[in-house]
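Model: You mentioned two targets. I'll fold them one after the other.
Researcher: Yes, keep them separate.
Model: Target one:
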Amino acid sequence: MSDTRAESRTYTARWVFPASNPPLHRGTVTVSGSVIEAVDPHGVRQPDEDLGNVAIIPGLVNAHTHLDLSGARGLTPPTTADRFTDWLLSVITYRRSRSPEQTRADIHAGLAESLRCGTTLIGDIAAEGQTWDVLAAAPTRAVVFRELIGLSPERSQTAHDTAETWLAGHHPTTSTRPGLSPHAPYSVRKGLFADAGRLCRSGKISYAVHLAESAAEVELLTHRRGPFADFLKDLGLWLPDGLTEDFGAVIEACDFGQPKLFVHGNHLAPTTRMTPGSTIVYCPRTHAAFGHPPHPFREFLARGVRVCLGTDSLASNPDLDVLAEARFIHSRYPDFPGDTLLKMVTLFGAEAMDWSNKTGSLEPGKSADLVAVPLPERDAEDAHTLLFAQDAPRADRRSMFCGLWRSWMTVGGNACFANEM
């Protein structure tokens, strides 16, 4: 994004959270054009604007969602964990019921909600890559993962060929990058994981897979039986010879060095070997809604495996606010380090999708992507507890992308955002 603006403006607030460094009480962030010029402790620079009782944090990163399902809020409620395939069928039925016009409106609505929450980088998994045009035109960064599905040899080959064609027609821009997402071990023929990985390696693009989302998935791969076997038989897709052997085989199949996002990981053993460049994307409220056992995110982080957060879609989650995911974790695990939790919704997600040279933390030279988050009217020994507090004000968050404050508007009946000039 070219920007000829050279005027600098310095902002202060009650707290500044760079994410890459400790919080600064009454610190300042200086923005020059579209980039951050400086992040300083209190007293180094005279602020031009005091944002008040807010935390200035990096733009939020939602590493996993499905914007095309944004119209499903309340229509496909999560089931108990042992009936996960019933929920999955309701999502398939919902998706098939939507016209192209309705789906496009859903994408716009989901995008607007994401931006209102302060998201400045989105990892979106999209059937046929259909969110590309909307996200490429929006004031945000994004990786659009084209979803690949195919258990039979014929459908697997078709998925590979259409992915290759789609990548040839969708080149990275300054704000939007293509990616591929072989959907899951129960919906993708085992050879397609490696084939898609090779396409990602040749294009130096990101790769995402839903992995170990439910206990039924474990039973399917280990014993070739259970709810997923029945689900596939009912759909006429029971092809056990095409299934991978286990989750480790999926992880190893795409060990090509490119960024890899393994989404959910609810039932991954904490000792699972993760290949270089791997990230686990944990969706806390969706995980809890299905009643899964405690997620192993802390064990993976302790091993040095990167973990970031996503909201999943509105087919399973109440909203698309990734900061609310972090606050949910804080309420469940109040002793979990606040600095790590902040990175899980900012820097770690940017690293996972190969955007950390531009965004994910407040550092000189990076894009001026930031959010002003209202704080409670009280003190705390650790400032992070204010940021993640359940009693934080629900007031609107002001967010900046590439040095410009974003404003909400409606265009053609669709809610959207634009940068203020």
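Model: Target two:
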Amino acid sequence: MTWTLARLRPGDRFPPPEQALPNDAPYPGLLAVGGRVDAKTLQAAYAQGVFPWFGADEPPLWWTPDPRMVLVPAELKVRRSLRQSARRHLREARLALRTDSDFRAVMQACAAPRRDTEQTWIVPAIVDAYCTLHTQGLAHSFELWRDDELVAGLYCVSLGGMVFGESMFTRVDDGSKLLLMALCGFCLRHGIGPIDCQQQTAHLANMGARPWPRDAFMRALEQSSQAQGPASWRYDWSQFQRDCAPWL
């Protein structure tokens, strides 16, 4: 069977999501290749349910998988071990929860090689484009700091009433899971969500995310585009304890 893949030039519009490669294709969910990776293109992509994912030696690749992994904030699963870990971190006086204090540092830490691979999709062009989105108020980071050291981080994109989770890292036990709790608590506080998790993984499923058919995700995206996003993304331990109390 032969599949046709859209090839984009800088400034081209994305094709409709239903034109993405089907699940029996070699790269299911791949919609287009090429184009420009900048803040304007990223904003257009997310508004259409499309996200970038490619390696350092590849052209820009744009994806819209079916199904789509989605986390409804109220459906977050916090297991006993994570509750215990969260309480322990809350008692640590040197550990602070912050938002947007060093967005670029969070992205750079997320881009660092992992134990299981030397590859990263968070290439310099991606870092620069998302940092521009951050200056425009469309991308945000949740951070754990121990004194002056960034020890865990998560960054996301926010358009209207939907949040698009991107990547996270941690250098402390359960740090990234704790930040996902914080993001869910923040979303519940402001009545926003769901959180787009993009790809299906066992880790996300264990945290409560589940696959949605693409058409259901696109309906939620269209509905959320009419909503007003939070006026402030400030978040700290006091708000975390109040919003996340049911999970603690």
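Researcher: Noted. Anything on target two?
Model: The chain has a mean pLDDT of 94.
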